[in-house]
Amino acid sequence: MRVQRFSIRESLTFGWSAFKGSLWWLVAVFALAKVMQYLPVLVVQRLDLFFNIDISGLVNAIMAVAGFLASQILVVKVSLQILDKRQVNLAEALRSLALFFNLGVGYGLYCLVVVFGLIFLIVPGVLWAIEFQFFPYFILDARSGPIEALTRSSEITSGEKWHLLRYNIITLLLQAAGLIALIVGYIPAYLVQLLATAHVYRQLTSHVQEVGDRDAQPADQTTS
Prior knowledge:
By secondary structure, this protein is mostly helical. It has helices at about 10-20, 25-50, 55-85, 90-95, 100-120, 120-130, 135-140, 145-155, 160-180, 185-224.
């Protein structure tokens, strides 16, 4: 029987435990991320209102994307800090805004691939969304370029797509339940999912690294 590279239960358990252990930090980070996400659009809208500037929908869209990317950088970096049992360091997380362009290019390529798959055949689009879903982690954690990040995400998810699909469905249901629970429940559900996904990423990368190390051993022994 094939052994799964990560445990859904273990990742969700970690997410819940880490959420409880860093509750107030996570709530503060969530609030800051939402400010970063929506502030650019609000600023543009206020400029339009107060100065009667005709700002196109394209500018609003650009500001919305910029806010989303900035917020993603913050929450992913903080989730990795907590995963690595480090103290939350907002200054360090915000320094990763230097990777804004790489993340933007990565998301652009990711969306093109997924939309292409959904237009022509729905199932490939869903599977490609899963295959490349960890590219932001490689950009922000390993400082990979966009293409390399997508390639490495494909590598760690190889053979795990249906298992990851089950994981994604479970976390989506948890967040939906949080929304139903007067919206307030969405915040802990989102944060638990964020931490659990970072845990899945680390489990998958660790497995690929272990396999690579084992494969390299015979070659090293032959050389010596």
